[in-house]
Write a structure and sequence with these properties.
single chain, Rossmann fold, seven-stranded mixed sheet, PKF_sf
Length: 329
């Protein structure tokens, strides 16, 4: 959707779960806007900040030395009040008082849902920037934070493999990703997992046990199984217990990597991606776009209707699924 009016002042905020690279995106939004003569207001604590009036004027020096920082300098929070018409009305009134004509919303599908409703109710221009480690947002090949989280998971699994090999153990390792298996599939391939369990595939205990039998016949005395937190077959601990029942001689351990995957300095790929998307968000607003999300597809900046970004999801690469099975020999 496009409009013809020129934007003179924008707000930028981060919402939902933090992701490495969000600060790089904030930096790109602020500096691109200032370069083009647009004022920028930072909103602290996401939608809560819109309601409570937590605004701060931002300039080029406001975002110095943050491109390498994890987390988000604007903080993030989930807001129950913003889900009410009264809360959104208060947020809009605060935007009017500040002279904010458009919002750059950095986050995931929950953030985009709030932005879409806010825009439809009050007519404020919104543009999304996909920031989530889950990589499950439609309209972009990669989301901000995915590459860093993936490398964090890979490095942790590599370290666990050292102890697995030393003690001839089987490790069940759970990684994040919410309902998506992108982190699990890619980190599993990268670390040579004997099996990878993800919610996008119909996994079974029989297949898991069969892979253990094959590994045993090939002489493997230690194994890694990588499991997405959204796996529906069973919980990671239940899978470990069922495997122990089937193979009582196995020395089995469980490792839940957890929120370590959300933190840390963003990778080069995430810093560049965030810079491109932050720049793209401002350029999109200057072109009159609203209710869209900036994304990168086939290395090109694209804009996807925010409704599609919410309702649709990135799909798992089928080649990667086959590769994971073949290389687990």
């Amino acid at each position: 959707m496009t409009t013809n009016s020129r934007v003179k002042k924008i707000g930028v905020f981060t919402s939902g779960g933090d992701a490495p690279g969000m600060n790089a995106a904030i930096r790109a939004v602020v500096r691109t806007a200032i370069f083009h003569g647009i004022e920028v207001v930072g909103v602290r604590e996401g939608y809560n900040g819109l309601i409570e009036g937590h605004f701060t004027k931002m300039g080029p020096r406001s975002v110095s030395n943050i491109i390498n920082l994890g987390g988000t300098i604007l903080k993030s929070a989930r807001s129950m009040e913003f889900k009410t018409p009264e809360g959104r009305k208060k947020a809009f009134e605060n935007c009017q008082q500040q002279g904010i004509e458009a919002l750059v919303c950095i986050g995931g599908d929950g953030t985009f849902t709030g932005a879409q409703i806010f825009s439809e109710e009050h007519g404020i221009k919104v543009i999304g920037v996909p920031g989530t480690i889950d990589n499950d947002i439609f309209g972009t090949d990669f989301t901000i934070g995915f590459d860093t989280a993936l490398n964090t998971a890979m490095e942790a699994i590599d370290k666990i493999r050292d102890t697995a090999t030393s003690h001839s153990r089987v490790f069940f390792i759970e990684v994040m990703g919410r309902d998506a298996g992108f982190i699990a599939l890619n980190s599993g391939i990268a670390t040579g997992a004997v099996d990878i369990l993800i919610p996008e595939r119909n996994d079974s205990l029989e297949d898991l046990f069969r892979n253990f039998e094959k590994a045993k016949k090939r002489g493997k005395n230690s194994s890694i199984v990588v499991i997405a937190e959204g796996e529906t077959l069973a919980s990671t601990y239940e899978l470990a217990n069922k495997t122990k029942e089937k193979f009582p001689d196995y020395d089995i351990r469980v490792a839940i990597l957890g929120h370590i995957q959300r933190g840390g300095s963003p990778s080069c790929a995430d810093r560049v991606l965030a810079s491109r998307l932050g720049y793209g968000a401002v350029i999109g607003l200057m072109k009159g776009l609203t209710n869209v999300m900036a994304g990168i597809r086939s290395n090109q900046l694209v804009y996807t209707p925010i409704e599609d970004a919410i309702k649709k999801h990135n799909e798992i690469n089928q080649d990667l699924l086959q590769i994971s099975e073949i290389l687990a020999l």
